[in-house]
Amino acid sequence: MACCAVAAFVIMRLLSLHHNLQCKLNLSEPKPGLPALQKAPRNTDSTCRISLTGITCAACTRSVQKALSSVPGVTSASVSLSLFQAHVQYDPSKTTPEALAAAVEDNGYGAEILPPPKSWRDDFEKADGLRKREIESWRSSFFSSILFTIPAILLPYSAPASSGPWASFILFDLEAACTAAGVFYCARHIHREALAAVRARRGDMSLLSSLGVLFGFIQSFATFLCHLQSSQANCDLPSFDAISTLVTVVLGGRYLKALVSRRAMGFAAELSTVMPSSTTVTSLRDIDQDLRAASEAIPIDFLNPDDWVIVPPGLAIPGDGVVVKGGSHVSETCITGEIAPRFKRAGDEVLAGSTNLDGELVVGITRTGTDTWLEKTLQFVARADSGRSSTEGPINTIIERFVGVVLVLAVTTVIAWRLFSDANWSECLRRDA
């Protein structure tokens, strides 16, 4: 075995020597007839970051990506749902960031040009703040809809048996008012998304939800007008409880979707908040001296490699580095996933974002800002979210076509009921709903 290993090593060294000699000989010999090598053209493309509002799912990101890619001069475009951002590489001689933002707005979404990134942590913190506001908005709409739905369900059954027709009309007016509040106030965000989809000539689930709620309310109100103008038995006093329930169910689904979306990005959001906002830097380099005698607190953005920082117990380490003085248990749970803390002493490496638990440490910083392990992890998360899997494209296509198929089937059903039955248009709409 030893002889075989030695022989393999010698052969590999000889092959390497032969390859190097051949390369040198080939470089020294002239090559007549071959064209002179030309330098590759310099990449003059610029990059742009655009903050997006109104995107809620993978279909939205695909729509934005298609809109950006259709702009002349765009080399590549990727959309991150986790950051609510679009990263575009473009030719500045053919287009501008303002034109890219306008293309996004024409597609029905909000767009704002962002400056170059200083830290991925700031982007994730901002995205998490947007998710929190989205959750609060849907939660408020959902519980408001519940408050309007309960009276809409109970009012039709609260009229006394001996009451006259005016009591029924008063209760019906109250029920209609509660339903209208749910349809036009609580579900206003869904109607805005549907209007944006219509302007951008695309179909999504918000469009279906909005049309279903609005047509159901209009049909019930039309039946009520029929009841006022006619005393026929087939014009019964309608009920709005089904419409109110539908609004509540749709808003509850959007509320749960917002919760799940934030929890799915909980790991990245937690990573973005582990770094301290400031740190204590010492100008001394002798570990035998009192390092706090020449120390000062600075914002973490002003931290540079080769700085020595003093990390007291309970605070996070501001950058990747090496312990130069002290010893303490350090928790890296948020960074590496290890539950048990590790004891760090002089000469051991530490990562940015890990928490010093019990002793004071003096750390010599080696990497700061976007060069730290934490920042690179967040960058990988954003890039992975911007990419598409092999099944995402077909699924998004199916979703886009599903909306059109549902609308065509609904219109066809109404027309079929009208042509092949004796029902009027109001009755056809009621059956279709």
From TrEMBL:
Species this protein is from: Lepidopterella palustris CBS 459.81
Molecular function per GO: copper ion binding; P-type divalent copper transporter activity
A GO term from the CC aspect: membrane
PANTHER family: ATP7, ISOFORM B, P-TYPE CU(+) TRANSPORTER
Swiss-Prot/TrEMBL keywords: Membrane, Metal-binding, Signal, Translocase, Transmembrane, Transmembrane helix
PROSITE patterns, alphabetized: HMA_1 (PS01047), HMA_2 (PS50846)
Name of the protein described by the UniProt record: HMA domain-containing protein
InterPro entries reported in the protein's UniProt record: ATPase_P-typ_transduc_dom_A_sf (IPR008250), ATPase_P-type_domA (IPR059000), Heavy-metal-associated_CS (IPR017969), HMA_dom (IPR006121), HMA_dom_sf (IPR036163), MerP/CopZ (IPR001802)
Signal peptide boundaries: 1-23
GO annotation (BP), single: copper ion homeostasis
TM annotation in the entry: 141-159, 165-187, 207-225, 237-256, 398-420
HMA domain segment(s): 46-112
